[in-house]
Amino acid sequence: MKTVLAITALVMSLAGCGGQKAQQSVPMLAGQASETAAVVPVESAAGAPTPKGPAEPVTKGGPLKDTLTASALPENLYLNIAVKGYGRMKVKFATKDAPKNVTNVANLAIKGFYNGLTFHRIVPGFVVQGGDPKGDGTGGPGYTVEAEIGRKHLKGSLAMARTGDQVNPQRRSSGSQFYLCLQPLPQLDGQYTVIGDMVEGLDVLEKLGQVKTGPMDRPVEPVVMESVTVTTE
User: Fold this and answer.
1) For 102-141, how does the pLDDT look when each residue is reduced to its tens digit (9 = 90+)?
2) DSSP 3-state helix, strand, coil percentages of the chain (rounded to 5)?
3) What stretches of the chain show up as alpha helix (H) in DSSP?
4) Which string of b and e fits 81-94 if b means at least 16 CB within 10 Å?
């Protein structure tokens, strides 16, 4: 299976992170081991999975049903993630800064792609990563998306995983795998496409960041996205 993406483990210093380890792994691609740290899964080419459950409304307007186009995105567009046993998170998409990547993720969500998938990688004080239909960091829809790099990594930022520069010098985004920042991560700025920022549910994200994990930073108990929907309010 051809590996297309993952958050790879590069060792980098985290500035201003009191109480955190001086060095952390940085997101990149599965199948590309860093010389200094373990690889963090991102994505490989794979067929889109069958939706695993109905997308439930999370705002009074209800989830969108029709797919979107990058040239005509609503100014206000939100990704709503309901995590089983933890609660809901709501991210406002950066429709103007990353329209191609936003459109891709939004349309996958509208089609039910993410329903029932897991957050397969959790690194305390760093990132929570998900969106892999295989659940091991080697899956995806079978394509990548043009990079739209520019926004900063803030606490609660949503960004796209990708393969490393060695095989992906254009820094194209994963077709489906994304990560949420557990704190500001300036060392990732300029390297990954950030597609939005959390406006509700930071407390839920913090709970996810405390989940017990095992090898490859994989949660000991599955952390499931019960529904992932797109709304305009």
Assistant:
1) 999 999 999 999 999 999 999 999 999 999 999 999 999 9
2) 10, 25, 60
3) 99-110, 202-208
4) bbbeebeebbbebb
